[in-house]
Write a structure and sequence with these properties.
This protein is an alpha/beta fold. It is built from 14 helices and ten strands. The strands form two sheets. An eight-stranded parallel β-barrel has the order 3-4-5-6-7-8-9-10, surrounded by nine helices. A two-stranded antiparallel ribbon has the order 1-2. Helix 5 runs parallel beside helix 6, helix 6 packs across helix 7 and helix 9 packs parallel to helix 10.
Length: 316
């Protein structure tokens, strides 16, 4: 039968088994059994995550750049700590545990022990997958210039530490190895690093800043059968491809980090400017407080209260 949670259908023998599946196992099932490419829109806070869940995506992505911007009000320059990122990821992952969350984990936040701690904390927070990159500790957004990467041995150690931590705690969390070496070195070096990462235990490969269809096809062929992720940052280093085009190139996952935060900026700024000029927001008449609360779980909260015999929300 199919267990339906309102957002995604999970193949299973029974509903009880579906409820016990870990987030990592659900993502692995999607990678193994879903023929179409996995599309994960970028969410940067609880509200944008709720909207993605409402639309019905099978997977969502917590963007590191969006987390820095929304949680810290800072650029993506390595300023977010493990605690910043883990706390944010835990909140998002647990809004609907049946929809796997892929989360940015930057460089792993230090040496092998730091990387292991990050994996353990992300696992306990309900995160399905995390990606760890080969930039130096003072990292920056992958679509900014001036990046620097660590040597291939250090990168391999980061991935090995992550894989070993996963094994120690009996986790299904998916480890995604990301390299930024395409911009700092060349395609050959980037490929070499991803192959080394897979040998060290990575489940998915992530070549940041792909610049052409030729690079895309080649990296997917070179890494096969390891799934490859596409980072679809609009107006960045990578050409704009649809999920269908990405799948044709060989990718198994596509993330859209700016899908929520870019339109949010435009809409919020426009509304604030209208207030400044006219004193009115111009919001749609149907966007009531109740509609807002319904988006973020009012129905579920009411049901929980009623099931326990309460009447606190019976008239909201």
């Amino acid at each position: 039968m199919t267990y339906t949670n309102g957002h995604a259908n999970v193949p299973t023998n029974d509903g009880f088994h579906a409820q016990r599946m870990t987030p990592g196992r659900r993502l692995r099932d999607l990678l193994e059994n879903k023929r179409d490419i996995i599309v994960a829109p970028g969410v940067y806070d609880g509200f944008s995550a709720r909207i993605a869940l409402e639309v019905g995506f099978d997977c969502i992505y917590m963007t590191g750049a969006g987390t820095c911007a929304s949680k810290l009000g800072q650029p993506d320059l390595g300023l977010a700590t493990l605690n910043d990122m883990r706390e944010h990821a835990e909140m998002i992952a647990n809004l609907d545990p049946f929809v796997p969350l892929i989360a940015d984990a930057d460089t792993g936040y230090g040496g092998p022990n730091n990387v292991a701690r990050a994996v353990e904390q992300y696992h306990r927070s309900g995160v399905a997958a995390l990606h760890i990159e080969d930039q130096i500790q003072i990292k920056r957004c992958g679509h900014l210039g001036g990046k620097q990467v660590v040597d291939i041995d250090t990168f391999s150690q980061r991935i090995a530490a992550a894989a070993q931590a996963r094994e120690r705690i009996g986790s299904d969390i998916v480890i995604i190895a990301r390299t930024d070496a395409l911009q700092t070195d060349n395609f050959g070096e980037a490929t070499r690093r991803l192959k080394a990462a897979v040998r060290s235990g990575a489940d998915v490969a992530f070549l940041e800043g792909v610049t052409s269809k030729e690079e895309a096809r080649t990296i997917c062929e070179e890494l096969s059968p390891t799934p490859v992720l596409l980072n679809m940052v609009e107006n960045g280093a990578t050409p704009s491809w649809t999920p269908e085009e990405a799948q044709e190139l060989g990718f198994r996952i596509v993330i859209f980090p700016f899908a929520a935060i870019a339109p949010a900026y435009e809409a919020i700024r426009e509304t604030f400017e209208r207030i400044k000029k006219t004193g009115r927001t111009g919001l749609a008449a149907d966007f009531t407080p109740k509609k807002l609360f319904s988006i973020v779980g009012l129905k579920q909260a009411t049901a929980i209260d009623a099931a326990a015999g309460g009447q606190l929300y019976s008239r909201v």
